[in-house]
Amino acid sequence: MYKPTLDYAQQQDKEDKLAHLRAQFHIPKDAKGNDWLYFTGNSLGLQPKQTQQYIQQELDDWAKYGVEGHFEARNPWMPYHEFLTNSMAKIVGAKPLEVVVMNTLTTNLHLLMVSFYQPTKTKYKIVIESDAFPSDRYAVQSQLKFHGFDTEEGLIEWKPREGEELLRIEDLEKIVDEQGDEIALLLIGGVNYYTGQYLDIKRIAEIGHAKNCMVGIDLAHGAGNISPKLHDSGVDFAAWCTYKYLNSGPGSLGGLFVHEKHAHNKDLPRFAGWWNHNKETRFNMRQPFDVMEGGEGWQLSNPPILSMAAIRASLDMFEEVGMEALRAKSEKLTGYFEYLINQIDTDRIKIITPSNPKERGCQLSIQVKNADKSLHKKLTENNIITDWREPDVIRCAPVPMYNSFEDVYRMVEILKTLL
Ligand SMILES: *Cc1c(COP(=O)(O)O)cnc(C)c1O
């Protein structure tokens, strides 16, 4: 049904019910004022134009009210994080009780491991993907070390088979079947940052739980990209950031999920601060610690309102559009991208990402034989912003909120000439 012509791409944009969203973003431009072809929403999402007003509102209220803004601001700061909860819960398929926006991703992973990585002398190992994002690997290694275990011996890698790029769920099953008695935790990226593979989270939870292992999911490349059903999947916990597909600005706060089955367990070990103490009595200082239920029970500090204002600006857009419509466009847009790449008459190119739309988000990871970083440089010189991974992979994410069919068409035309 797809056609490899500019006319066709422009026609798709005309018929696209989400095409108007592009104008609601700042699209970076070159010196002559031409839009960049921006394919790195998987690394840093673009800025919604309304973000500035949302932040300005809080600056104005701070100027106007000082400390009274905690209650008097138009959007009172005291409960501000609660304004984000419902939209965020929808995006990841969770109940509002299970979700909170706080801290940053790696910090949240550590706080969650304080509660859900409870190693014993014999059951202490952690499983990650061999291609896990470095921060996740360092985080689990440091947890092993903190608990007095060897970081090599305690870490089990779920690897692709020889000559393959993608993970097979049967291989995880085998690892857990054979070594489950020694495994305390599986911490897996829901969408792999490198290959773009979207794993079956529910299956991972079942595999882990069959051997009494805790299961945590890193959704950095999932949130706002695919529609995970975190609650139904049964995973114990998850964490993600909001500056990738959730367009909330560099270093913005992360999201955290703790499954309802743990929400009321006040005996779970966890770190504490005044912000996970019961909000009813938080300001009657010197009360004994009384932890809150649900995701909020993992907060520590009063959060940065300016960062949350940016998240709110973005989540309001997601709320308006809905993940279902975004996902539908995303499958079509990435499908078109894949189709065009497969039309290129060369044996140098291989798409690593799964071809089944159910097993990927919007990102395609394209391996280019005999290429080096100069290809990435040439793409950039042609206004195409992509992400290069050594030795020879270009990661490219057409984002349904602001990328067009024409973007994808133009990108592949230029790639063709550079090959
Ligand atoms: C982007 C990303 C991170 C980054 O962690 P921060 O704590 O937000 O700096 C960590 N893990 C994964 C899988 C990521 O994709």
UniProtKB/TrEMBL annotation:
Required cofactor names: pyridoxal 5'-phosphate
Record-listed E.C. numbers: 3.7.1.3
GO molecular function terms noted in the UniProt entry: kynureninase activity
SUPFAM superfamilies listed in its UniProt record: PLP-dependent transferases (SSF53383)
Keyword Disulfide bond set for record: no
Protein residues bound to pyridoxal 5'-phosphate: 105-106, 133-136, 218, 221, 243, 274, 302
Top-rank taxon: Bacteria
N6-(pyridoxal phosphate)lysine carried by residues: 244
Reaction it catalyzes: 3-hydroxy-L-kynurenine + H2O = 3-hydroxyanthranilate + L-alanine + H(+); L-kynurenine + H2O = anthranilate + L-alanine + H(+)
Subunit structure: Homodimer.
InterPro entries: Kynureninase, PyrdxlP-dep_Trfase, PyrdxlP-dep_Trfase_major, PyrdxlP-dep_Trfase_small
Pathways involved: Amino-acid degradation; L-kynurenine degradation; L-alanine and anthranilate from L-kynurenine: step 1/1; Cofactor biosynthesis; NAD(+) biosynthesis; quinolinate from L-kynurenine: step 2/3
Name of protein: Kynureninase
Family assignment from sequence similarity: Belongs to the kynureninase family.
Pfam family for this entry, one: KYNU_C
Broad class of enzyme this protein falls into: hydrolase
Keyword vocabulary terms for this entry: Hydrolase, Pyridine nucleotide biosynthesis, Pyridoxal phosphate
Role: Catalyzes the cleavage of L-kynurenine (L-Kyn) and L-3-hydroxykynurenine (L-3OHKyn) into anthranilic acid (AA) and 3-hydroxyanthranilic acid (3-OHAA), respectively.
